[in-house]
């Protein structure tokens, strides 16, 4: 990586590692689970896919991984068409499924060895040992999977997905049924993987998880991708708080003396709304209130509100058309 | 060719076999021994020779085929049905393996297991009756070809089945009758002419006849026809599996 010239590096990194084009899925029963999805995942990023139950997250992931056939559209993964050049595409992808599907009677070691072979990689016990150690599974390597707890099984699935050194890792709800400690372990591991250059796509119901982990966030609802946004940008929107002051006397224009603050009038001049950034040190509220007092502007009530990612999420999901516009 | 992938599947399946070695081996050996005792010794002693072969020896090829068919079908159908049932098939579907590699892995392992079992039964038979093998190479050939063909057939059943009941129903309702009526315990020449004609529609007749020829050089139907029929059935199964994988029928939604 270090040796390659900067120019070619940036050119390479601008080519998405996954490119989803016009993908739709109608299940055998006639239910349309995905509607014309277009999505680019950048090399090396952590992308979080959010959406309510049944939105189509697992369906989308399953199509990219080759488990479900798309009804329409095409997908390029790591430079290879997933249908025409499925070997190369799939060899680059690791998947941790949402459900805990494991071979109950196999040992941990046997199952990760199997996964590595299945994906066409020559044996490498040293690498597999490292994977198991990183996931605190090394002590359990000879145990049968059925003897492990749910959280441990989830780790085994992660180890299986990593066993063939994928450049793209899908984590379908990695924190479902996982305690706080394991969740933090997992976040740490995901960050380490990202530092090593792995691209990670995860789905989650925990907004906190997306906030902590993701570089970008996509929201999917009823089979439609209704938002894809840089997390920082989203956080800035989210970082905006509003202070609403209900005035005793309605005003028609904002006095010039208050031009230092970003104020808007609403409720026909009965309310003054001040928007401020929670990320900065000084909110400017104290000064504003002092200035109001100095200019004899009285208010009978004040209330502050904040839009969380959760709010944005909920409003998006319930009003998809507005969000798109 | 994803050689490591084939090897992984093959080893996984063989490990499953060796984990259940007692059930896998003890049951068929016991069943066959019972057949020898009942048909070979008790009843066989009162039966005349068939084509100048003692009855006990005459039924050996048929009994081996009987186990071979049952074991091939049950091994292969179970092998592919289990991951579907447990959900672990997601990994197979998301792996860079082609259908032919999946097939070589599963069918190869199932066939290996049933050939080993066939040999074991032949060994067991030695304790009950003396028999000779006129064409050992052909005998092995028939064993392998039948094991592969019926493992493939079992694989298809495993793909098609969506419940344990369905997994059992074809072996029980179709394969068992066909094997019993396939001339394992008698020569079809002993049947009335009309039943001889009907028997010719039973593929198992050709298998057992060909296999028995490799032992004693006696056959109900021409050996060439037997070999042709096995290959024909093999081709039908291969084509069907190819179609299943191409269309994603019952595997990829
Ligand atoms: N095999 C199937 N046959 C028919 N419909 C299906 C099938 N699998 C999923 N669906 C439907 O497709 C829709 C999307 O399902 P999907 O599993 O992709 O949702 P999800 O976003 O992953 O949900 P969750 O958050 O609950 O995991 C759901 O309405 C589901 O009922
Ligand atoms: Mg899901």
Automatic annotation (TrEMBL), chain A:
The keyword Nucleotide-binding applies. SMART domains: AAA. It holds the Pfam family ABC_tran. PROSITE patterns: ABC_TRANSPORTER_1 (PS00211), ABC_TRANSPORTER_2 (PS50893). It comes from the Bacteria. GO terms for molecular function: ATP binding. Keywords: ATP-binding, Nucleotide-binding, Transport. Residues 18-247 form the ABC transporter domain. InterPro entries: AAA+_ATPase, ABC_transporter-like_ATP-bd, ABC_transporter-like_CS, ABC_transporter_ATP-binding, P-loop_NTPase. PANTHER family: ABC TRANSPORTER ATP-BINDING PROTEIN. This is ABC transporter ATP-binding protein. It comes from Methylomonas rosea.
From TrEMBL, chain B:
The keyword Kinase does not apply. Residues 19-248 form the ABC transmembrane type-2 domain. It is a multi-pass membrane protein. The chain crosses the membrane at residues 21-40, 52-69, 141-161, 167-188, 200-219, 225-245. It comes from the Bacteria. Keywords: Cell membrane, Membrane, Transmembrane, Transmembrane helix, Transport. It holds the Pfam family ABC2_membrane. It is found in: Cell inner membrane; Membrane. NCBIfam families: PRK15066.1. Belongs to the ABC-2 integral membrane protein family. This is Transport permease protein.
């Amino acid at each position: 990586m270090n040796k390659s010239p900067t120019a070619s590096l940036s050119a390479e990194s601008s080519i998405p590692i996954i490119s989803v084009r016009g993908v739709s899925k109608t299940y055998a029963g006639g239910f349309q689970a995905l509607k014309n999805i277009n999505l680019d995942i950048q090399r090396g990023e952590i992308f979080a896919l959010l959406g309510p139950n049944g939105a189509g997250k697992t369906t989308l992931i399953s199509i990219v991984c080759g488990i479900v056939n798309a009804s329409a559209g095409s997908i390029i993964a790591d430079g290879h068409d997933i249908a025409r050049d499925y070997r190369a595409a799939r060899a680059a992808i690791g998947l941790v499924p949402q459900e805990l599907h494991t071979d109950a009677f196999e040992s941990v070691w046997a199952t990760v060895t199997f996964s590595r072979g299945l994906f066409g990689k020559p044996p490498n016990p040293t690498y597999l040992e490292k994977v198991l150690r990183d996931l605190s599974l090394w002590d359990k390597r000879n145990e049968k999977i059925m003897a492990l707890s749910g959280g441990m099984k989830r780790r085994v699935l992660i180890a299986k997905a990593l066993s063939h050194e994928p450049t793209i890792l899908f984590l379908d709800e990695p924190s479902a049924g996982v305690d706080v400690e394991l969740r933090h372990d997992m976040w740490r591991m995901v960050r380490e993987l990202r530092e090593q250059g792995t691209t990670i796509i995860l789905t989650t119901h925990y907004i906190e998880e997306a906030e902590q982990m993701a570089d970008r966030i996509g929201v999917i609802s009823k089979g439609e991708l209704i938002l894809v946004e840089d997390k920082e940008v989203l956080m800035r929107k989210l970082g905006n708080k509003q202070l609403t002051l209900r005035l005793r006397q309605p005003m028609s224009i904002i006095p010039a003396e208050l031009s230092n603050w970003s104020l808007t009038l609403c409720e026909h001049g009965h309310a003054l709304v001040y928007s401020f950034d929670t990320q900065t040190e000084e909110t400017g509220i104290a000064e504003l209130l002092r200035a109001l007092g100095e200019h004899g502007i009285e208010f009978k009530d004040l209330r502050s509100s904040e839009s969380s990612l959760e709010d944005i999420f909920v409003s998006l999901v319930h009003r998809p058309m507005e969000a798109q516009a | 060719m994803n050689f490591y992938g084939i090897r992984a599947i093959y080893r996984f399946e063989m490990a499953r076999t060796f984990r259940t070695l007692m059930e896998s081996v003890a049951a068929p050996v016991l069943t066959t021994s019972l057949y020898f005792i009942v048909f070979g010794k008790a009843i066989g002693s009162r039966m005349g020779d068939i084509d100048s072969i003692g009855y006990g020896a005459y039924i050996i090829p048929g009994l081996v085929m009987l186990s071979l068919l049952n074991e091939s079908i049950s091994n292969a159908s179970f092998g592919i049905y289990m991951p579907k049932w447990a959900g672990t098939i997601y990994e197979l579907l998301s792996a860079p393996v082609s259908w032919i590699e999946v097939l070589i892995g599963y069918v190869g392992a199932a066939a290996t297991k049933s050939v080993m079992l066939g040999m074991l039964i032949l060994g067991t038979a030695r304790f009950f009756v003396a028999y000779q093998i006129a064409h050992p190479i052909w005998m092995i050939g028939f064993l392998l070809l039948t094991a592969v063909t019926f493992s493939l057939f079992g694989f298809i059943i495993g793909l098609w089945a969506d419940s344990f009941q369905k997994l059992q129903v074809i072996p029980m309702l179709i394969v068992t009758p066909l094997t019993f009526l396939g001339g394992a315990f008698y020569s079809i020449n002993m049947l009335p002419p009309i039943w001889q004609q009907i028997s010719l529609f039973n593929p198992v007749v050709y298998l057992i006849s060909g296999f028995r020829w490799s032992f004693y050089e006696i056959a109900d139907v021409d050996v060439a026809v037997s070999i042709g029929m096995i290959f024909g059935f093999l081709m039908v199964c291969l084509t069907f599996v190819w179609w299943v994988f191409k269309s994603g029928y019952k595997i990829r939604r």
